[in-house]
Amino acid sequence: MSADNQKRLAAERALTFVTSGMKLGLGTGSTAAHFVAGLGERVRKGHLDVVGVPTSEATHKLAVQHGVPLTTLDETPELDLTVDGADELDGSLRLVKGGGGALLREKIVAAASARMVVIADASKVVERLGAFPLPIEVIPFGQRATAIAIDKAARKLGLDPVLHLRMGAADAPFRTDSGNLIYDCDLSAIPDPEALADALSGIPGVVEHGLFIGLCSAAVIAGADEIRVMGKD
Ligand SMILES: O=C(CO)[C@H](O)[C@H](O)COP(=O)(O)O
Questions:
Q1: Which of 35, 75, 168, 204 has the most CB atoms less than 10 A away?
Q2: Catalytic residue among 41, 78, 88, 106
Q3: Is the pLDDT of residue 46 over 90?
Q4: Residue 170 domain-assigned (yes or no)
Q5: What is the mean pLDDT of residues 46-65?
Q6: Is 107 annotated as a binding residue?
Q7: What pLDDT does 104 receive?
Q8: In terms of domains, do 175 and 65 share one?
Q9: Where does substrate bind (predicted)?
Q10: Is the pLDDT of residue 22 over 90?
């Protein structure tokens, strides 16, 4: 079975967590897109009555296309459930996110939700986080100084970071939905995600980093032969 089919199956399983009346956070990425499509289908058929807060402009567009009723986090600041993808997750449901560049809004929306459920194909489950370069969103002002501070903070923790400024179209740096830049920080492994998260959060100029710790309560993982739920079903 292809990874995309696994993503679709994980999304379909997560739809069983949704009940009418829920206020939902809608994640970003190819796995979350399957969830938004499935949600839209159920809404159009009259099986579900929900509202969603998109975590990116891309998800906003997709949700409109699929007929998912939308609200904003300002109108609806407390959500019941966020369903989102991940770039990596470990056995303690610690995540690396931001491959799609939406980590800031994704983290704000997840933090405003009573529950966050990750949906992923089995390749995303790792023994130890860090093979996927950690996305770090920074303010454009002083971005080179911020990158040096990130490098120093990681080295203090015994890591050997390699930072790449993410590029977008036409050889220009990628800009997030909030107009910021992203450094992808190649660390090979992150032995102590909590310590790195704390260190990065303390750097002026870092808006947010892609380590999601203590936010995800369950993950639906679709493999070639089975779908399993990690954490609280
Ligand atoms: O964090 C994300 C976007 O910022 C995505 O959830 C993550 O990149 C996974 O994407 P996909 O479902 O396409 O594999």
A1: 35
A2: 106
A3: yes
A4: yes
A5: 98
A6: no
A7: 98
A8: no
A9: 28-31, 84-87, 97-100, 124
A10: yes
Q: 14 in a domain, yes or no?
A: yes
| Sign of CA pseudo-dihedral 231, 201, 151, 146 | positive
**Ligand 1 site, residue 29, Cβ cutoff 6 A:** yes
The pTM (predicted TM-score) of the whole model is 0.97
The answer to whether residues 94 and 156 belong to one domain is no
Check: CB of residue 85 under 8 Å from CB of residue 120.
Answer: yes
Residue 145, domain CATH: 3.30.70.260
Q: Please indicate, yes or no, if residue 129 is contained in any of the structural domains.
A: no
Nearest CA to ligand 1 atom 10: 29
Residues ≥6 apart with Cβ < 8 Å to 189: 128, 129, 130, 131
| Residue 101 Cβ contacting ligand 1 at under 6 Å | yes
Q: Is 30 annotated as a binding-site member?
A: yes
Contact between 91 and 129 under an 8 Å Cβ cutoff? The reply is no
Residue nearest (by alpha carbon) to ligand 1 atom 12: 31
**Does 35 share its domain with 117?**
yes
Number of domains in the chain: 2
Q: Give the range of the structural domain holding residue 80, as residue numbers without chain letter.
A: 3-122+213-222
Give the integer Cα–Cα distance in Å for 81 and 77. 12
